[in-house]
Amino acid sequence: MKRLFHGVTIGITIGVFISLIFSTLFAHSQFHPVSPESTMGSIYFTHLSELQIMFISVVIWAFIGITFSYGSLIYSSSRKTLLFKTLTHFSLMLVIMLPLAILAGWFPLKFSAILLFIVIYTIIYIIIWGIETRRNQHDIDEINDMLSKRKG
Any residues with CB less than 8 A from the CB of 4 and at least 6 apart, and which? Predict the structure, then answer.
């Protein structure tokens, strides 16, 4: 339950923060939780109220947070290789994130936009993976140093 609440909270917080940034940059002093130029944004703004659009956005952001919160459990299995866990995590998160990103109105439903999303997703994933790998290696090195001092 704690993991679920944490995922929801982080997802909504990041979603609101990013939508505020993009609204500031592109919405000319209006708040748009969804891009009106995207396919889903166009549908939402044509058929729904602003409150309904915000509600949909919050639910999607919560699902994104939950996805990544529970997705990290893939790394808790010690029987698989790091490469297998990383490829599984990457693939599963992409398969879940792509439809959520479409529903969130992050881009229009065009092949080039979907391909660009996949490229950006991959780059961000590699950056975060690299940072986490370095951090974990640093922790391992500290533990090893502590253990070697105990022996000596």
Answer: 66, 69
